[in-house]
Amino acid sequence: MSPVRRVLRVAGPSATIERDGGQRELPLAPRLPGGPPVAGDLVEVRETGRESIVVGVRPRRSSLVRATAGGRRERTIVANVDLLIVVAAAVDPPFRPRLVDRYLVAAAAGGMDAALCVTKTDLPHDSGELAEFVHIYRDVGYPVECGVAREAEFGDRVRALIGDRIAALAGHSGVGKSTLATTMTGVDRAVREVNERIGKGRHTTTDPRLIPLPGRGAVIDTAGVRAFHLPAMDADRLAAGFPEIAAAAADCRFRGCRHAGDQGCAVPGRVHPARLDSYRRLLAAEQSTSEPRRS
Length: 295
What we know:
Layout: E1 4-11, E2 14-19, E3 22-27, E4 42-48, E5 51-57, E6 63-67, E7 74-79, E8 83-89, H1 97-109, E9 113-119, H2 127-140, E10 144-146, H3 152-162, E11 166-171, H4 177-185, E12 209-212, E13 218-221, H5 235-239, H6 243-249, H7 273-290
Parallel strand pairs: 8-9, 8-11, 9-10, 11-13
Antiparallel strand pairs: 1-2, 1-4, 2-3, 4-5, 6-7, 12-13
């Protein structure tokens, strides 16, 4: 039986895997069953003498999946992750609640727990507005940590949140994911400041990489994005990413209520208006991409 190893990183036709307390880069077999692999995957390795090759990818228990604009193609970013930590900045780039909500929906759809980390709280920002956002997500039940990515105390709090789990850091470009990963692990990744001219982060981390945390657990630093498109999903699956909406929906008068002004809907008044608006926008976007094109 082929040994099973965890993938730390994938680069082109090869993958870096955990092996004997260290790591080794191995080639991927052509037309890899279950592939292509991503960071976090468990893969089967065929070892013959001095040569080893990845020959298969084991079924995933969780995954973060994003779609291209229009939802025509899907791409798995990481696999077998226990916790998705959505990293957002208090400012520079500005806090984007709808992007946060998209990631939270993707976490629920992919079988992961979710949390929110807000960075750059040392920079001038609207503290009242940020406190309102933090309250919204904590009230729903998501763990939220706020601080400065480069500070050890903040890194320790995020490490405690992860515990012995595998966590992925995801979010907008330039929010400090790589800096936070370095603070927690001591492993330096390419880190650059936000582009001052256009106010957008640069894609300094292009290949997700799994890095063990000191003592226990691990973190995967993923590439920053400027937009995150959800894979196709129905209204019920979308609502699962809004647990407060799913809970209130149990009291809707009619089954299949989409909470978009429907008669007898029990959701308005029991869910924060910003979150309900975000859900409705995502639902409308999903409906528009699923409609057949007219010739």
